[in-house]
């Protein structure tokens, strides 16, 4: 649809930009704390928090402090948190068994949050990298990330997360066939109400660097993830993946990273009209935060502008490390 407009001076675009009231009346996209999912890094111990150097302002927290963070998020109107464990190197194995231990950090944190703040939606990450001795999202055999055996492990991991009480599972591994396998296992295992937000269009991106520091995977990773994550040059493939994941039983889809891939968000939303999310990843956070901290960008304005861009591009929500800060600004 192309709006009809009279020639200048009958049409003057500045008329509707003249006052805050007029601008508010014709504003299309909106941003609210309800649009945010806050990623949290979980560590062991009690009363422990440590900074992630490449993500100033972001911390790894022990489970008691994760619960506090979830309570804070709830108070700010943020509906969901997403948990990522910082696993002790001694627990990382080639078989990734810790991934489906009922008592691992992520599952223990899920239970603790659901006990203390039952209304907080808990999303968990389904991928083997935090538990894998070689840092990959799948099982490695003779240097190859093997697909089908990885899917079997991911199913076990997903079921353990469902047992812990996760509301949303986020398979971020990019193996083929995992959404269908997880959906089947959830249905037959009595967890038919657990939602899946598939990391559908996850690109092999340099913007994940600080995240790997945060979960302690940087040192462990051997090689790269290009045989399972998407080529940043591709766009049509993202649509094929969305269609596949929806047909396999995904309830929501995600594009990741966010800001460099807003074109993909828009194409996904326009093509499928399903709940679509973007992950503003660690490198995007680090880039913006670095500029804010140096005084090179006006932090408050640039943060909200960057987040609003996701909504304008068609996203229903955003996973963002800025969630509490942005929620406070929106509330002010
Ligand atoms: N599976 C979760 C991630 O890879 C997060 C990436 C990031 O924040 O850089």
From TrEMBL:
Signal sequence, renumbered to the chain: none
Keyword terms, alphabetized: Heme biosynthesis, Lyase, Porphyrin biosynthesis
Recorded catalytic activity of this chain's protein: 2 5-aminolevulinate = porphobilinogen + 2 H2O + H(+)
Active site: residue positions: 202 (schiff-base intermediate with substrate), 256 (schiff-base intermediate with substrate)
Keyword Lyase set for record: yes
Pathway: Porphyrin-containing compound metabolism; protoporphyrin-IX biosynthesis; coproporphyrinogen-III from 5-aminolevulinate: step 1/4
Enzyme class: lyase
Family as reported in the entry's similarity comment: Belongs to the ALAD family.
Subunit structure: Homooctamer.
Protein name: Delta-aminolevulinic acid dehydratase
């Amino acid at each position: 649809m192309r709006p009809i407009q009279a020639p200048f001076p009958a049409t003057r675009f500045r008329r509707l930009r003249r006052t805050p009231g007029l601008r508010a009346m014709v504003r299309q996209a909106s941003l609210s704390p309800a649009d945010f999912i806050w990623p949290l890094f979980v560590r062991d111990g009690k009363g422990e928090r440590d900074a992630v150097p490449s993500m100033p302002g972001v911390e790894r927290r022990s489970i008691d402090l994760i619960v506090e963070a979830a309570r804070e998020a709830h108070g700010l109107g943020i509906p969901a948190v997403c948990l990522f464990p910082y696993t002790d190197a001694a627990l990382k194995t080639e078989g990734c068994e810790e991934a489906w231990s009922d008592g691992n950090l992520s599952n223990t944190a899920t239970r603790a949050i659901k006990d203390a703040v039952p209304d907080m939606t808990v999303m968990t990450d389904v991928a083997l990298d935090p538990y894998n001795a070689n840092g990959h999202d799948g099982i490695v055999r003779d240097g190859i990330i093997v697909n089908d055996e990885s899917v079997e492990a991911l199913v076990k991991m997903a079921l353990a997360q469902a047992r812990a009480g996760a509301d949303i599972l986020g398979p971020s591994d990019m193996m083929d066939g995992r959404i269908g396998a997880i959906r089947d296992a959830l249905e037959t295992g009595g967890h038919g109400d657990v939602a899946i937000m598939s990391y559908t269009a996850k690109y092999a991106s340099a913007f994940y660097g600080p995240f790997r520091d945060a979960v302690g995977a940087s040192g462990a990773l051997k090689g790269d993830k290009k045989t399972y994550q998407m080529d940043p040059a591709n766009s049509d493939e993202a649509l094929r993946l969305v269609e596949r994941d929806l047909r396999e039983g995904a309830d929501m889809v995600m594009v990741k990273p966010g800001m460099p891939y807003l074109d993909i968000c828009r194409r996904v939303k326009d093509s499928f009209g399903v709940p679509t999310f973007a992950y503003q990843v660690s490198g995007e956070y680090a880039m913006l935060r670095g500029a804010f901290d140096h005084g090179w960008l006006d932090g408050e304005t640039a943060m909200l502008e960057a987040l609003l861009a996701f909504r304008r591009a068609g996203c229903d929500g955003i996973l963002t490390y800025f969630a509490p800060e942005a929620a406070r600004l929106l509330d002010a």
